[in-house]
Amino acid sequence: MKTIFKSFLTFAVLILSLAFTSANVNAQTASQIKNVVLVHGAFADGSGWKGLYQILTKKGYNVTIVQNPLSSLEDDVKATNLALDKQDGPAILVGHSWGGTVITEAGNHPKVAALVYVAALQPDSGENSIQWLQTAPPAPENGVLPPDDKGIAYYDKAKFHAGFAGDLSKEDADFMFASQGAFYANGFGTPITKAAWRTKPSYGIIATEDKSIVPSIQHAMYKRSNSKITEIKGSHVVFISQPAKVANVIIEASKK
Q1: What domains appear along the chain, each with residue ranges and CATH number?
Q2: pLDDT single digits (tens) 59-107
Q3: N or C: which end of the chain has fewer CB within 10 A?
Q4: Where is the signal peptide (predicted)?
Q5: 91 and 36 in contact (C-beta within 8 Å)?
């Protein structure tokens, strides 16, 4: 009888141990999304993410930076999906400015667990970017120029520092201007097919000193989508001037 009891006790302990281990692993999986995919906006390229990349990688995150061709919404979504395909598990998808429109469409990828909008556009299904940009008067510092004869929109060099990167040094702002991509303006008029934020958790960072997408527009979009809002004092490139604060929002999203 003692032998039977000991065998039963050993079996019970084993079952409880396995159950605890399984629950612990599941909890860790749910709370430790380690892949982050960063999507830049118009009038920029992926180099602006360097500070944020360094912070997140030091904390153990696997960070991928998408280089958008900026030739169309479809092309930028394709580039983002290629990056998502390579992830080894769930990922947090982050978009800045025009990149917000891109992640709204690309966020339907099955590996995307949550979306983080950084001073970004956030249209709904059937909406485009330009209609949101027209919901409030532009700031005087805004320097987005009309498309040229090739359909490409650039940012006015004379206004780039104040209008795009006001809290960076002039030297850093000049580098950003020199490295901006050629953005085909037809992307602003392309509607979203299916807004991923309607089915996935979303976080919205409002740059309170933004002169390119005024804060009132950001707030209206994020409130409409029920995104968790964080306000950070910074320019349109708040992810460069305040990378630690932006990283905190991404880390919060990764724990959901």
Answers
A1: 33-138+187-254 (3.40.50.1820)
A2: 999 999 999 999 999 999 999 999 999 999 999 999 999 999 999 999 9
A3: N
A4: 1-27
A5: yes
